[in-house]
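Lecture notes, unit on protein representations.

Consider one protein chain, 169 amino acids long.
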Amino acid sequence: MSHDLYLSSVPVFRQMLLALSGVLSKGEAHAEGRNVKPEVLLQARLAIDMLPLVRQVQIACDFANSVSARLAGIEVRSYVDNEQNFAELKERIATTVAFLDTLTAAQFDGSDALEIVLRPGTPKEKKLMGRAYLLSYGLPQFFFHVTTAYNVLRHVGVDIGKKDFMGTY
């Protein structure tokens, strides 16, 4: 039964993206309250070789979008990745959540047996069945980027905690 793949993905992506939007709002308020240019926070990173906050949010949205679309058997929509401020990042999240809200559990029927090909035609090509794609690849990737975005803001002093990370459940 593939309905559990829907329940293990769409509501989880939705919850965490809405929480991430709230965390970004707190980051924006933090910057304003301390007279810090928002770009400083948006370009912050935990280590020199990591992607900045803005890119972490974009990638989290990309995983929520692409994993859900593939499992639902529909075309993956692409984004330009041109967000440059907190409002644009929160709009990106809202657009992703709006897409998730269009999906139904019925669209995930048969997705257990769906073969997903990652990086097709490259030396890094990998084939996963639907369940493994979600549980071993998609969700871990998504949570990595959501957690990293949260940690970047926490690292620069934004007053956020576990409740902010978790959001409403």
